[in-house]
Amino acid sequence: MFRLSTTFMPGANSPTGLRPTSAKVARMAASSYSARARLQPALLAAFPLSALSVAIFVAKPSWWSSLIAVGGASGVSTLAAQVARAAGRSREPELWERWGGPPTSSALRHRSATNPVQLHRYHAAIKRILGITLPTAEEEATDPVKADLEYETAVKGLIERTREPDKFPVVFEELCSYGFRRNLFGLREAALAACLFSAIGSALGVFLASSGSHDLLPEPFVVVLALDVAEALFMWRAVTPEWVRDPSETYAKALLGATEKM
Fold first, then answer.
1. Is residue 16 part of a domain?
2. Which distant-in-sequence residues (6+ apart) come within 8 Å of 210 by Cβ?
3. pTM
4. By three-state DSSP, how is residue 8 classified?
5. 163 in a domain, yes or no?
6. Which pLDDT belongs to residue 3?
7. What's the rounded Cα separation, in Å, for the pair 258 and 5?
């Protein structure tokens, strides 16, 4: 089960040299995670429309730049991050069903273990850190649903203990990577729709600019059209469940590997 396990490098650049409190670290880490794993996918999904807008209004930068400033002050970026988060989380059940469960829980299962020795170390570390005795292979086979609930509980406990980025930077980096891909996958259809709309607008812009009936340049629209095609191909061919699965499994390994430092 994936939940925010944010990190931040505190203290190094503090003018007082004092270490920030855990609450402040968590807030700053959350802000970093939100920008990297939520806002960036939203901006990428909306990029075709943003590029088309620039091509249309490049000759009138004064009001366009003012509109951007007003939008930023009005919390548009925060809204975009929240939309991306909701889109990504809404696809997680589908992804987990496709993969046979959350990778973090799967990594604790006996039935999916590829290295029983490492699995035993993970279980032993969780018992030492959290005081939770995870199911044996026989108990898991008897009641796999109950076993998965116990694995999920253990994962939640580990997530709560890996929120400080200075202590667990690898966990944070892998969480951001997974969050970015998951949220972009959640926005996949919206991004493809934006590419289509922008491509139609760009083609119309090229036509109007070439006809000389409007004060437009054709070159920006040609560039935007090429970018639309490139992003659409990327979204269609690359942004798939398997593309999301790779960082999800890497995050699971990083989270369980962090038990060696606890």
1. no
2. 218
3. 0.82
4. coil
5. yes
6. 46
7. 12
